């Protein structure tokens, strides 16, 4: 089943869920120049890589409350983007899967993150295709 947002039924688990105490934090279209791929030219020269991140984050104010209006109580999407950017630009990675997994695992370091979905796209690889890539999901046990 494909949802209207294109993520499929499995991707729907990143919707906010007050009953389960979860909020949805996301970063869309993070574009970096990264050395990603198995070919020699991909190792030697950076290419455009687009990263999308979805986080299921524990919301201590759910289901009925309102938390303090303070950055310290939430997962900062600026910090999420910075983590992904740092990992993507750290050096050559052969597989998009590996890059996505590294980002996902790093984001699970925050105890408030219950699940993370990372999508890595290479939009300039095939001339007649808008984008190729992979999505991975990791979760806290």
UniProtKB/TrEMBL annotation:
SMART domains: FolB (SM00905). Residues 25-138 form the Dihydroneopterin aldolase/epimerase domain. Pathway: Cofactor biosynthesis; tetrahydrofolate biosynthesis; 2-amino-4-hydroxy-6-hydroxymethyl-7,8-dihydropteridine diphosphate from 7,8-dihydroneopterin triphosphate: step 3/4. It catalyses: 7,8-dihydroneopterin = 6-hydroxymethyl-7,8-dihydropterin + glycolaldehyde. It comes from the Bacteria. Pfam families: FolB. Belongs to the DHNA family. This is dihydroneopterin aldolase. It comes from Roseomonas nitratireducens.
